[in-house]
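Data deposition worksheet. Section B asks for the primary sequence of the deposited chain exactly as it was used as input, without tags or linkers unless they were present during the calculation. Section C holds the resulting structure in token form. Section D is free text for depositor observations; keep each observation to a single sentence. Incomplete worksheets are returned to the depositor.
Section A, Depositor: J.P.
Section B:
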Amino acid sequence: MRRRIVIRVSPGIVCLALAGLAQSQDLPDLTILGDPQLMMLGIDQREVIFAAEAENIGTADAERVTVAFEVSSGAGGAFKSLGAGERVRLLPAGGSKWVFKQAKLAAGCYVLRVIVDGRNTIAESNEDNNLVEIPFCKP
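Section C:
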């Protein structure tokens, strides 16, 4: 007798059915919502604050989420970390949280990269949507 395995995938839920027995597992799905923002501070023209909204579009809560900020000096340049990642203690299913990173940058054009769960420490329904890059110029 052959057993039939059916795998069904829908956003946030992975289901496996084997010979009529079904198991489902709710998973978080972490992403960066929209484009990160760049804010200039008036005190020191080199000082900038990056802001990004981390979102959990999955069906389970995520704990100890790390959001990292990196910059490169233009297209094709190597990315440099802006320090330790920002930690979000709890990101509930369907929830979001703004995270901020302060840095000093000289005037010029850069690419900002924001990565949520960059080390893949959290099992997710989709691991391919954890990174966003945007170019920007700082006067």
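Section D:
The longest strand covers residues 30-40.
The chain is about 0% helix and 60% strand.
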